[in-house]
Design brief:
The chain is α/β, with parallel strands linked by helices and 274 residues long. 45% of the residues lie in helices and 12% in strands. The strands form 2 sheets. A 4-stranded parallel β-sheet has the order 3-2-1-4, with helices on both faces. Strands 5-6-7 form a 3-stranded mixed β-sheet, covered by helices on one side. Strand 5 and strand 6 form a beta hairpin. The chain starts with 9 loop residues before the first helix and ends in a 12-residue tail after the last strand.
Protein backbone atom coordinates (compact mmCIF):
# COMPACT_ATOMS: atom_id res chain seq x y z
CA UNK A 1 0.00 0.00 0.00
CA UNK A 2 1.19 3.53 -0.78
CA UNK A 3 1.72 5.14 2.61
CA UNK A 4 0.35 8.55 3.47
CA UNK A 5 3.32 10.90 3.78
CA UNK A 6 1.60 14.26 4.10
CA UNK A 7 -1.43 15.71 5.85
CA UNK A 8 -4.83 15.62 4.15
CA UNK A 9 -8.22 16.44 5.60
CA UNK A 10 -10.49 13.89 7.23
CA UNK A 11 -12.90 14.29 4.32
CA UNK A 12 -10.13 13.52 1.86
CA UNK A 13 -9.03 10.49 3.91
CA UNK A 14 -12.61 9.22 3.78
CA UNK A 15 -12.76 9.70 0.00
CA UNK A 16 -9.45 7.86 -0.43
CA UNK A 17 -10.66 4.96 1.71
CA UNK A 18 -13.88 4.73 -0.32
CA UNK A 19 -11.85 4.77 -3.54
CA UNK A 20 -9.57 2.00 -2.31
CA UNK A 21 -12.49 -0.17 -1.25
CA UNK A 22 -14.40 0.44 -4.49
CA UNK A 23 -11.44 -0.45 -6.72
CA UNK A 24 -10.58 -3.48 -4.60
CA UNK A 25 -14.11 -4.79 -5.14
CA UNK A 26 -13.73 -4.50 -8.93
CA UNK A 27 -11.35 -7.53 -8.81
CA UNK A 28 -9.69 -6.46 -12.10
CA UNK A 29 -9.53 -3.31 -14.19
CA UNK A 30 -8.10 -1.66 -17.27
CA UNK A 31 -7.33 2.00 -16.66
CA UNK A 32 -7.73 4.57 -19.44
CA UNK A 33 -4.45 6.26 -18.63
CA UNK A 34 -3.21 9.50 -20.19
CA UNK A 35 -0.49 10.20 -17.64
CA UNK A 36 -2.33 13.20 -16.25
CA UNK A 37 -2.60 13.61 -12.50
CA UNK A 38 -6.17 12.21 -12.44
CA UNK A 39 -5.64 8.96 -14.34
CA UNK A 40 -2.26 8.52 -12.63
CA UNK A 41 -3.96 8.51 -9.22
CA UNK A 42 -6.45 5.92 -10.47
CA UNK A 43 -3.59 3.81 -11.87
CA UNK A 44 -1.75 4.07 -8.54
CA UNK A 45 -4.71 2.94 -6.45
CA UNK A 46 -5.64 0.24 -8.97
CA UNK A 47 -2.14 -1.22 -8.81
CA UNK A 48 -2.12 -0.92 -5.02
CA UNK A 49 -5.43 -2.78 -4.68
CA UNK A 50 -5.41 -5.13 -7.67
CA UNK A 51 -1.74 -5.72 -8.44
CA UNK A 52 -1.28 -7.81 -11.60
CA UNK A 53 -5.05 -7.66 -12.18
CA UNK A 54 -4.68 -4.03 -13.23
CA UNK A 55 -3.28 -2.60 -16.45
CA UNK A 56 -2.89 1.00 -17.65
CA UNK A 57 -3.79 1.67 -21.30
CA UNK A 58 -2.67 4.76 -23.20
CA UNK A 59 -4.15 5.73 -26.55
CA UNK A 60 -1.40 6.94 -28.91
CA UNK A 61 -2.15 9.26 -31.82
CA UNK A 62 -0.72 12.46 -33.37
CA UNK A 63 -2.85 14.44 -30.87
CA UNK A 64 -0.75 13.12 -27.96
CA UNK A 65 2.53 15.01 -27.60
CA UNK A 66 5.62 12.80 -27.37
CA UNK A 67 6.59 14.58 -24.16
CA UNK A 68 3.34 13.47 -22.50
CA UNK A 69 3.67 9.91 -23.78
CA UNK A 70 7.17 9.67 -22.34
CA UNK A 71 5.93 11.06 -19.03
CA UNK A 72 3.10 8.51 -18.98
CA UNK A 73 5.61 5.71 -19.55
CA UNK A 74 7.91 6.94 -16.78
CA UNK A 75 5.05 7.36 -14.30
CA UNK A 76 3.65 3.89 -14.99
CA UNK A 77 7.12 2.45 -14.41
CA UNK A 78 7.38 4.38 -11.14
CA UNK A 79 3.98 3.06 -10.00
CA UNK A 80 4.85 -0.47 -11.08
CA UNK A 81 1.71 -1.06 -13.12
CA UNK A 82 1.73 -2.88 -16.43
CA UNK A 83 1.41 -0.32 -19.23
CA UNK A 84 0.05 -0.96 -22.71
CA UNK A 85 -0.02 1.48 -25.63
CA UNK A 86 -2.62 1.28 -28.36
CA UNK A 87 -2.80 3.23 -31.60
CA UNK A 88 -6.02 5.16 -32.07
CA UNK A 89 -7.23 6.59 -35.36
CA UNK A 90 -9.54 9.48 -34.52
CA UNK A 91 -8.00 11.63 -37.28
CA UNK A 92 -9.53 9.26 -39.82
CA UNK A 93 -13.00 10.09 -38.51
CA UNK A 94 -14.75 13.09 -40.06
CA UNK A 95 -16.59 13.67 -36.76
CA UNK A 96 -13.20 14.36 -35.19
CA UNK A 97 -11.12 15.78 -38.04
CA UNK A 98 -13.57 18.58 -38.87
CA UNK A 99 -13.35 19.71 -35.24
CA UNK A 100 -16.99 20.21 -34.26
CA UNK A 101 -17.89 21.28 -30.71
CA UNK A 102 -18.36 17.65 -29.68
CA UNK A 103 -15.00 16.54 -31.10
CA UNK A 104 -14.06 14.95 -27.77
CA UNK A 105 -17.01 12.57 -28.10
CA UNK A 106 -15.46 11.11 -31.27
CA UNK A 107 -12.05 10.92 -29.58
CA UNK A 108 -13.27 9.01 -26.51
CA UNK A 109 -15.51 6.81 -28.63
CA UNK A 110 -12.45 5.74 -30.61
CA UNK A 111 -10.35 5.29 -27.47
CA UNK A 112 -12.89 3.18 -25.63
CA UNK A 113 -13.56 1.03 -28.66
CA UNK A 114 -10.02 -0.20 -28.00
CA UNK A 115 -10.00 -0.18 -24.18
CA UNK A 116 -13.22 -2.21 -23.96
CA UNK A 117 -11.97 -4.64 -26.62
CA UNK A 118 -8.71 -5.11 -24.72
CA UNK A 119 -10.46 -5.57 -21.39
CA UNK A 120 -12.48 -8.43 -22.85
CA UNK A 121 -9.47 -9.95 -24.60
CA UNK A 122 -7.41 -9.82 -21.41
CA UNK A 123 -10.37 -11.01 -19.31
CA UNK A 124 -10.42 -7.88 -17.17
CA UNK A 125 -13.86 -7.12 -15.82
CA UNK A 126 -13.91 -3.31 -15.92
CA UNK A 127 -12.58 -0.21 -17.66
CA UNK A 128 -12.09 2.80 -15.39
CA UNK A 129 -10.91 6.33 -16.09
CA UNK A 130 -9.75 9.50 -14.33
CA UNK A 131 -12.79 11.72 -14.89
CA UNK A 132 -13.25 13.74 -11.70
CA UNK A 133 -16.19 15.50 -10.07
CA UNK A 134 -15.17 18.95 -11.36
CA UNK A 135 -15.19 17.61 -14.92
CA UNK A 136 -18.93 16.92 -14.66
CA UNK A 137 -19.60 20.65 -14.43
CA UNK A 138 -17.52 21.49 -17.52
CA UNK A 139 -18.30 21.01 -21.22
CA UNK A 140 -16.86 17.54 -21.76
CA UNK A 141 -18.59 15.56 -24.54
CA UNK A 142 -16.06 12.76 -24.08
CA UNK A 143 -17.67 11.84 -20.76
CA UNK A 144 -20.84 10.80 -22.58
CA UNK A 145 -18.86 8.56 -24.94
CA UNK A 146 -17.15 6.91 -21.97
CA UNK A 147 -20.47 6.34 -20.23
CA UNK A 148 -21.97 4.82 -23.37
CA UNK A 149 -19.00 2.44 -23.53
CA UNK A 150 -19.63 1.36 -19.93
CA UNK A 151 -16.51 3.01 -18.51
CA UNK A 152 -16.56 3.67 -14.74
CA UNK A 153 -15.33 6.99 -13.28
CA UNK A 154 -14.54 6.34 -9.57
CA UNK A 155 -13.19 9.85 -8.92
CA UNK A 156 -16.48 11.34 -10.06
CA UNK A 157 -18.51 8.79 -8.11
CA UNK A 158 -16.81 9.76 -4.84
CA UNK A 159 -16.77 13.48 -5.68
CA UNK A 160 -13.02 13.99 -5.94
CA UNK A 161 -12.28 17.57 -6.96
CA UNK A 162 -9.11 18.44 -8.84
CA UNK A 163 -7.70 19.86 -5.61
CA UNK A 164 -8.53 16.63 -3.76
CA UNK A 165 -6.61 14.70 -6.41
CA UNK A 166 -3.55 16.93 -6.14
CA UNK A 167 -3.61 16.91 -2.32
CA UNK A 168 -4.01 13.13 -2.10
CA UNK A 169 -1.40 12.50 -4.79
CA UNK A 170 1.04 14.67 -2.86
CA UNK A 171 0.20 12.90 0.40
CA UNK A 172 0.97 9.53 -1.24
CA UNK A 173 4.32 10.77 -2.49
CA UNK A 174 3.46 10.82 -6.20
CA UNK A 175 6.12 13.11 -7.72
CA UNK A 176 3.77 14.51 -10.39
CA UNK A 177 1.10 15.74 -7.97
CA UNK A 178 1.45 19.33 -9.22
CA UNK A 179 1.76 18.48 -12.91
CA UNK A 180 -0.05 21.09 -15.04
CA UNK A 181 -3.14 20.01 -16.95
CA UNK A 182 -2.18 19.13 -20.52
CA UNK A 183 -5.16 18.68 -22.85
CA UNK A 184 -4.52 16.95 -26.15
CA UNK A 185 -2.99 19.00 -28.96
CA UNK A 186 -6.30 19.12 -30.83
CA UNK A 187 -7.63 21.46 -28.14
CA UNK A 188 -5.43 24.21 -29.63
CA UNK A 189 -7.73 24.66 -32.64
CA UNK A 190 -10.88 26.82 -32.67
CA UNK A 191 -13.96 24.75 -33.41
CA UNK A 192 -14.51 24.30 -37.14
CA UNK A 193 -10.81 24.51 -38.04
CA UNK A 194 -9.73 21.20 -39.58
CA UNK A 195 -7.27 19.12 -37.55
CA UNK A 196 -4.44 17.56 -39.53
CA UNK A 197 -1.34 15.58 -38.65
CA UNK A 198 0.92 18.36 -39.97
CA UNK A 199 -0.82 21.07 -37.94
CA UNK A 200 -0.56 18.97 -34.78
CA UNK A 201 3.17 18.57 -35.35
CA UNK A 202 3.53 22.35 -35.78
CA UNK A 203 1.87 22.95 -32.41
CA UNK A 204 3.94 20.30 -30.67
CA UNK A 205 7.21 21.78 -31.97
CA UNK A 206 6.13 25.32 -31.06
CA UNK A 207 5.23 24.39 -27.48
CA UNK A 208 8.46 22.46 -27.00
CA UNK A 209 10.36 25.56 -28.12
CA UNK A 210 8.64 27.68 -25.45
CA UNK A 211 9.37 25.08 -22.75
CA UNK A 212 13.11 25.27 -23.35
CA UNK A 213 13.44 28.22 -20.98
CA UNK A 214 11.38 26.66 -18.22
CA UNK A 215 7.85 27.85 -19.03
CA UNK A 216 6.17 24.46 -18.84
CA UNK A 217 2.52 25.51 -18.81
CA UNK A 218 1.98 26.74 -22.37
CA UNK A 219 -0.58 26.51 -25.17
CA UNK A 220 0.06 27.55 -28.75
CA UNK A 221 -3.32 28.14 -30.34
CA UNK A 222 -3.45 27.50 -34.08
CA UNK A 223 -5.71 29.83 -36.05
CA UNK A 224 -5.05 29.01 -39.68
CA UNK A 225 -1.39 29.92 -40.14
CA UNK A 226 -1.37 32.21 -37.09
CA UNK A 227 0.06 31.11 -33.74
CA UNK A 228 -1.20 32.64 -30.49
CA UNK A 229 0.99 31.87 -27.47
CA UNK A 230 -0.76 31.51 -24.11
CA UNK A 231 1.24 31.27 -20.87
CA UNK A 232 0.28 32.02 -17.25
CA UNK A 233 0.05 35.75 -16.50
CA UNK A 234 2.85 35.58 -13.94
CA UNK A 235 5.17 34.17 -16.62
CA UNK A 236 4.60 36.85 -19.28
CA UNK A 237 7.36 39.18 -18.07
CA UNK A 238 9.80 36.24 -17.93
CA UNK A 239 8.81 35.33 -21.47
CA UNK A 240 9.40 38.86 -22.74
CA UNK A 241 12.78 39.12 -20.97
CA UNK A 242 13.98 35.69 -22.05
CA UNK A 243 13.08 35.28 -25.68
CA UNK A 244 14.83 36.93 -28.56
CA UNK A 245 12.04 38.12 -30.80
CA UNK A 246 13.74 37.43 -34.12
CA UNK A 247 14.91 33.97 -33.06
CA UNK A 248 11.40 33.00 -31.93
CA UNK A 249 9.79 34.36 -35.09
CA UNK A 250 12.26 32.57 -37.32
CA UNK A 251 11.60 29.27 -35.58
CA UNK A 252 7.82 29.62 -35.82
CA UNK A 253 8.07 30.64 -39.49
CA UNK A 254 10.31 27.67 -40.24
CA UNK A 255 7.78 25.17 -38.87
CA UNK A 256 4.92 26.69 -40.91
CA UNK A 257 3.34 29.63 -39.12
CA UNK A 258 3.06 33.00 -40.86
CA UNK A 259 2.31 35.20 -37.84
CA UNK A 260 2.88 34.95 -34.08
CA UNK A 261 1.25 36.78 -31.16
CA UNK A 262 1.31 36.64 -27.36
CA UNK A 263 -2.06 36.55 -25.57
CA UNK A 264 -1.81 39.20 -22.83
CA UNK A 265 -4.85 37.74 -21.06
CA UNK A 266 -2.70 34.76 -20.19
CA UNK A 267 -3.41 31.05 -20.15
CA UNK A 268 -7.02 30.27 -19.30
CA UNK A 269 -8.19 26.67 -19.46
CA UNK A 270 -11.23 26.15 -21.67
CA UNK A 271 -10.90 29.56 -23.32
CA UNK A 272 -12.19 28.23 -26.65
CA UNK A 273 -15.43 27.19 -24.93
CA UNK A 274 -16.29 30.78 -24.04
Amino acid sequence: MFNQLDFISEKQILKLNHLREFISNLKSACIAYSGGVDSALIATIAYEQLGKNSVAITGVSPALANKLLNEARAQAKWIGIKHLEINTFELEEKSYRTNPKDRCFACKKELHKHTTFLSKKLNYKNVIDGVNFDDLGDFRPGIKAAQEAGVISPLAIFEFSKQDIRDISKSLGLPWWDKPAQPCLSSRFPYGVEITDSRLKMIEKAEEYIRRVGIQDVRVRCQGTSARIEIPCDQIQKFIRTYRREELLNFFFEIGFKSVSLDLEGLISGKLNR
